[in-house]
Specification:
45% of the residues lie in helices and 11% in strands. It is an alpha+beta fold. A hairpin with a 2-residue loop joins β7 and β8 (226-228).
Length: 528
C-alpha cells in the first residue's frame, strides 16, 4: 500500500470525515436491443408507449431506433440506482408486445446494413442534430458496429471530500481545479488497472458469424453461426468492436484536464481527408455534421470519460471548461447476460471499491511508453485473458495476470473495508471476495460461463442469447409494476411526448444555420 493511499484512508476514516463517503453519486446507463422472438432485430419505431426518445429522462435510444438506453437518476447508494433500473426494465418489458430485450452486448441477427434503422428524434433542431450525428456514424464506421450494447457506470465523490483532500495537501489549486485534476488522476489509475475489469466482468467471448460478414478477422469458428476466441473475455472491447483507426493517437496521456480538452477541441475542428471525401450532404440531405476527425466530442471512443452535466445545447467540452469535472463515466463494461438488468449489485459494489482505490491511490503522471503498456495489457486481456499462464507488462517487467490481479485485490480490500465501515457491514468486502474466486478459477468468470452456456445450446451465440432474453422477459413479467408505479411511468412518457411536440413547434426553421452555430461552440482557447 502506498503511503499516500494509507494516509488518505486514515484521513477519511476519521470521525470528522467518514460520512463524506456516503455522499457521492452513482448512476447507470444500460443499452439493449429490441429483438423479435426469432432473435432478429426489431425494425419498428421506438414504441410510443415509452415516450419520446428525445426528452424522456430515463428511456431513450442510442445509435439505432432499435437500441434502447435506460438511464437511472444519480443516487448516493448504487442499490437505489439499481432499483430504478429494475423499474425501468419492468415498465419497458410490459410495453414491448411481441419484442424482447436482447441479453448480450454483441448484436442479435441484424438485417442488411441499409435496413438497420437510425434513431429518430423528431424535427426539432436538437432532435435533428442527434439524428444527423448518427447518420455520420453510419457513413464513418458502418451501422453494425453501432448496434453493440454496453453498460456505463457513472461515479462521483462528494465535493466536500475533495475539499478535505485539497486542504490536507495544501494544494495551490482552487476547489474546482483540484477536483478536476483529481478525477484525471483517477482516470490515469483506471487506465493502469482496467484490464482487471475486463477479466472479471468481460462477457462477450463470442459473436454471431453474420456480424463480421465481409470483414477480415482472426476469430475461430465455434459453429456455423458463431465465431469466438477460446480465452477471450470481451470481443466487444477488442479491435473487432469499439476501435477506430482514425482516432489512433488522438488522445495524449491523461496528465491534466486542459490537455484532454485541447485534444478533443482540436479533433472536432481538424479536417479528416476520408470524411471530406464523403462530404456533409448527399442528394440534398445532411449525412454528417461536419467532415472533421470527430463530429462531436462524444464520438471519441474511450473506456472512461471525465464528465459534467451539460445545459441544453451545450457541448461537453464547454461544460468541462466552464465548470470542471463533476464525475467520471466508466464505459468498458459488457452487459452481463446472466443478470436481467445487465449488472448485479455485487458488481456495482466492487466497482465502488475499485474506483475509490483509483481515486485515493498515488497516480504518477504517465507518458507514451506507460500509456502503450496499459493499452497493451487491456488488449491482451480482452482477447486472451483466460489463457493459462498469461502475462502482462508492469513497468517493463512481465507479471502473471492472476498474480497481479490478486495483488490488486489485496490493495482494493482497504477501500472496500473503508466503505463497509460506513454501514458496519461487509457488502463491499463480500463483493470483492467473489472477484478473488474468479482469479483463482477462470471458469467462474462471465466469459467462461457464456462459453459454457453456448455449449448447452449447440454452440450457437444466437440460441444462447435468445434463451437468456426469454428468461429475463419471464422474470419481468412475473414482477410487474404496481398500479401507482405504472401510472407514474405512463405520465412521464406522455409529458416527454408533449415536450418534444413543443420543441418542434418552436423550431427556428434554418437547420443549416443551427448546425453551423453548433459546430462553432467549442471554446476556441482550447483548440491550440
Amino acid at each position: 500500500m502506498s503511503n499516500l493511499f494509507a494516509h488518505r484512508l486514515a484521513l477519511l476514516a476519521d470521525d470528522a470525515h467518514r460520512g463524506l463517503l456516503t455522499l457521492g453519486y452513482r448512476g447507470i446507463e444500460r443499452e439493449t436491443l429490441r429483438v423479435k422472438p426469432t432473435g432478429q432485430l426489431a425494425l419498428g419505431p421506438h414504441p410510443r408507449a415509452l415516450g419520446s426518445a428525445l426528452t424522456h429522462p430515463q428511456i431513450t435510444t442510442d445509435y439505432s431506433e432499435s437500441l434502447l438506453e435506460f438511464i437511472t437518476p444519480a443516487e448516493h447508494d448504487v442499490s437505489i440506482a439499481l432499483d430504478h433500473l429494475d423499474r425501468i426494465h419492468r415498465f419497458t418489458a410490459a410495453h414491448l408486445q411481441d419484442e424482447l430485450l436482447w441479453s448480450q452486448s454483441m448484436p442479435c441477427i441484424l438485417p442488411a446494413e441499409a435496413d438497420i434503422p437510425i434513431a429518430w428524434y423528431g424535427n426539432s433542431d436538437i432532435g435533428m442534430i442527434k439524428h444527423v450525428y448518427r447518420r455520420g456514424l453510419a457513413v464513418r464506421y458502418g451501422k453494425a458496429m453501432q448496434c453493440i450494447a454496453g453498460l456505463h457506470y457513472n461515479y462521483s465523490l462528494a465535493e466536500d471530500l475533495w475539499r478535505v483532500l485539497r486542504h490536507d495537501v495544501q494544494s495551490p489549486l482552487d476547489d474546482k481545479d483540484f477536483q478536476s485534476e483529481s478525477y484525471i488522476a483517477l482516470i490515469r489509475n483506471f487506465h493502469r488497472y482496467s484490464w482487471l475489469l475486463m477479466y472479471l466482468f468481460g462477457a462477450s467471448p463470442a459473436l454471431a458469424t453474420q456480424f463480421l460478414q465481409g470483414r477480415p478477422h482472426s476469430l475461430e469458428r465455434l459453429s456455423d453461426d458463431t465465431l469466438y476466441l477460446p480465452y477471450a473475455t470481451s470481443l466487444r472491447m477488442s479491435d473487432l468492436g469499439y476501435q477506430n483507426k482514425a482516432q489512433a493517437g488522438l488522445m495524449p496521456p491523461y496528465n491534466d484536464l486542459d490537455s484532454y480538452m485541447r485534444s478533443l477541441s482540436r479533433a472536432v475542428r481538424q479536417p479528416y481527408p476520408d470524411y471530406e471525401a464523403i462530404g456533409t450532404r448527399r442528394n440534398g440531405e445532411w449525412i454528417q455534421l461536419n467532415t472533421n476527425l470527430l463530429q462531436i466530442e462524444n464520438e471519441y471512443y474511450a473506456t472512461i470519460r471525465p464528465k459534467r452535466v451539460i445545459n441544453s445545447g451545450e457541448r461537453p467540452v464547454e461544460a468541462l471548461c466552464a465548470r470542471g469535472v463533476q464525475y467520471i463515466e466508466v464505459r468498458c463494461l459488457d452487459i452481463d447476460p446472466f443478470e436481467p438488468l445487465g449488472i448485479s449489485l455485487d458488481t456495482a459494489r466492487f466497482l465502488d471499491a475499485f474506483l475509490l482505490f483509483c481515486a485515493l491511490d498515488d497516480s504518477p503522471l504517465t507518458d507514451e511508453r506507460a500509456s502503450a503498456e496499459a493499452s497493451g495489457n487491456f488488449a491482451r486481456t480482452v482477447k486472451e485473458g483466460r489463457r493459462p499462464g498469461l502475462t502482462l507488462e508492469r513497468g517493463g517487467q512481465s507479471i502473471g495476470l492472476q498474480d497481479w490481479g490478486l495483488e490488486l485485490l489485496e490493495r482494493i480490500q482497504a477501500s472496500a473495508d473503508l466503505l463497509d465501515a460506513q454501514h458496519d457491514d461487509t457488502r463491499h468486502g463480500d463483493a470483492l471476495a467473489l472477484q478473488k474466486n474468479k482469479l483463482r478459477d477462470p471458469d467462474t468468470t462471465p466469459s467462461a460461463r457464456v462459453l459454457a452456456g453456448l455449449r448447452e445450446h449447440g454452440n450457437s451465440f444466437i440460441a444462447f442469447g435468445l434463451q437468456q432474453s426469454l428468461q429475463h422477459a419471464r422474470f419481468f413479467a412475473a414482477h410487474p409494476l404496481d398500479a401507482e408505479e405504472e401510472a407514474a411511468f405512463a405520465n412521464t412518457a406522455r409529458m416527454s411526448l408533449a415536450e418534444q411536440e413543443r420543441m418542434e413547434r418552436q423550431r427556428g426553421g434554418d437547420f443549416d444555420a443551427f448546425v453551423a452555430a453548433y459546430n462553432q461552440r467549442t471554446p476556441s482557447r482550447l483548440c491550440g
